[in-house]
Amino acid sequence: MRRSLITATVIFAFLIGCAASRSGTVVAQQPTPSPAPPTAAPLKVEKFDPKSPKNVTAEQVAESAVFLYGGREMLAKIRRNGIERGRICRPTCDLDKKEEASYERRFVRGDSMDKDKIRLDQKMPTLEYSLIYGSGQLFGIINGSLFTPRQDAAETFLAQHRHSIDNLLRYKENGSTLTLVGRDKQKGLDLYILDVTDKDKQTTRYYISAKSLHVLWLEYEEPAPGSSTPLKYSRKFMDYRYAQGTLVFYRTVLLEEGKQVQETRILNVTYGVKLDDALFKAPEA
Known about the structure:
By secondary structure, the protein is an alpha+beta fold. It has two domains: about 5-70, no CATH class; about 75-170 and about 190-280, outer membrane lipoprotein receptor (LolB), chain A (Clam), CATH 2.50.20.10. It contains six helices and 13 strands. The chain has helices spanning about 5-15, 60-70, 70-80, 150-160, 165-170, 170-175, and strands spanning about 80-90, 100-110, 115-125, 125-135, 135-140, 145, 175-185, 190-195, 205-210, 215-225, 230-245, 245-255, 260-270. Strands 6-5-4-3-2-1-13-12-11-10-9-8-7 form a 13-stranded antiparallel beta sheet. α1 packs antiparallel against α2.
């Protein structure tokens, strides 16, 4: 069942108005979901100076996004574990000739993201393999045998986990710090720009719609193989829908140095599925 974007917007405006008497943390009771209109009303806030963001705090933006995506309690309960199925295309799913793989992603959420367990099974016409992350370690399985993933595959997997929307929604659990860069208009979109820096000092920049509070895209840098110059990445999030009371994006596009290199489309996702711990363990020799 979908929520009303107007409800989220009004709540955010009310919380900003209470900032002078509170510490800045957004605390709100979940409303009863109702059908969402095609568009949401603009935020009722005073004029915002990007060079002096005094009308709203980084924590208010982050907590309001957490609330819109389902709320911290619901996200922790509903998205504790689950199965996501879809397809991965390089560079895009719209070309006749493309490299495409179906995937199944199973996960168990830990107290923080470095304690998550993730298993990604990918199937291509000529190859099937699994990448498994747990206890901070990444390994692969192919034909029942253990293997060490290629460096580029490992880095892509870890980067997608580290630089994700979950990194924003779970910033408190991860011990990350927030910085509100400001508010800006890009391509006709009114945006909050928020940096989230984790305990390893890696920063992800989020571009959040000031109208809907959806994360529209994020940006980050990762070291280039064999080079001291980092590569710039951005990931766009589209086709938002509600799944089991939480907000989910069903299409993402990954760009490297401004060029699209990958598209992912979710076909279905189910939360609250019991998963055997053996799925996340290396096969016995």
